[in-house]
Amino acid sequence: MESAIDTHLKCPRSLSRRVAADYVPPFPMWVARADPSLKQVVMGHFGVQSKSGDGLANAASLDALRHIVATFQATDGPGHFDLVDYADTDGYDNRMAIAYWTDPAAFARWQDAAPVRDWWQSDARLSDGLGYFREILAPRVDQFETLYAFRDALPGVGAVMDRVSDEIEEHGYWGSMRDRMAASQTDWLAAKGELCVVAGDPQARGRVVIGGHDNLCLIRSGQDWEEAGAEERTLYLEEIEPTLRAGMDFLRDQGASIGCYSNRYVRHIDLDGRPVDQSFDLGHWRSLDLLERWAESHPTHLRIFVTFFRVATSLEKLRLYHEVLVVDAADQYYEYIHCHPNSGLMRDARIGADAN
Q1: Strand 196-199 relative to strand 350-351: parallel, antiparallel, unpaired?
Q2: Would you indicate the residue range of the signal peptide (predicted)?
Q3: Which of 6, 222, 254, 274 allows an S-S link to 280, with CB 3.0 to 4.6 Å?
């Protein structure tokens, strides 16, 4: 058994772990490992928004998503991407391509290439009846952690990492998420600053740029039941998923009161928009400690946690995982084009606030 923090990222702790040195986790879990040369990753969320029930807009949204995916095939495109969709509380359907780069310079070249740059900057994005958004986060390797209940075909950021750890120590207790993040050895990772509107007016549905703040937190927590047998599929769909959905709906609808800026419970899709038996929650939080507070004390998450621990040892093909990051203000970019004002991080951004 080894630490979740890789050897080259370990340093003398000024902040202690949340458990004693002799703690033994209740079941095995693993994390993704990267070559020491990896310093930073880029996670890009590229979205298309359309009014629910509008067939023409739905078809146009799918075409736009395909166009975004086609640009990924260019030089300097991402090493991995996922396609998902979700419905928001304002009556809009949203499709997203979520992409990962291990080279920020390659991402910058891809984003600045004329075919990508000109499409996103075109006036057509404001007039074709759809909404579009780009959310870019680029954490350093000491600012994110992963956790998997399996060791093969890692999803999300794990797909662009180099290998998988041995069984790790830091899981199965409150605070383990923080303990797996290398930066937490010496930093409380407290939020600094505010979300602010950098350009545009969210109420005007034009182009809006939101500025993030230091140590904004993002969690992706996923489930994959594609390979599950009948019994395990029933266990997931009838016991785990309803409890999970209730918690995610709470964060989507009422999360602002506890520090959750945006919560999307998404379903994987293919390029034709057909659902795939995988899902994940994508949540932006003001800080890691507010995410922890909800996880440790709120009834909606305690029900999820208790349900998981009750069935964890019987899982064979159901694949559960998560990735969590904090990120500097300078390494975030949020742009919304003709989106409704509650989209993404616009809802909680303050006009005239200082992000730093």
Answers
A1: parallel
A2: none
A3: 222
C-beta of residue 89 within 8 angstroms of C-beta of residue 249 = no
DSSP assignments along 210-262, one per residue: EE--BTEEEEEEEEE-TT--HHHHHHIIIIIHHHHHHHHHHHHHHGGGGTEEE
Rounded Cα–Cα distance for residues 208 and 190 (Å): 26
Catalytic residues: 322
Instruction: Give residue 244's pLDDT.
Output: 87
Confidence (pLDDT) at 308 = 67
Instruction: At 287, list the tokens.
Output: 């800080």
State whether the Cα torsion 138-139-141-146 is positive or negative: negative
Strands, E assignment, the chain: 32-33, 42-51, 80-87, 92-101, 131-137, 144-148, 163-164, 196-199, 207-211, 216-224, 260-269, 275-285, 319-327, 332-337, 350-351
Q: What is the spatial distance between Cα 99 and Cα 95, in angstroms, rounded to a whole number?
A: 13
Residue 67 amino acid letter:
H
CA dist 172 → 7, 149, 283, 339 (Å) = 21, 12, 21, 39
Residue range 91-108, pLDDT digits in tens: 999 999 999 999 999 999
The pTM (predicted TM-score) of the whole model is 0.94
Tokens of 110: 């891809």
263 contacts 283 by C-beta, under 8 angstroms: yes
Compute the distance between CA of residue 157 and CA of residue 43 in angstroms, rounded to an integer: 8
First-to-final CA distance of the chain: 40
Give the CA dihedral 65, 228, 31, 249, nearest 10 degrees.
60
pLDDT of residue 236: 84
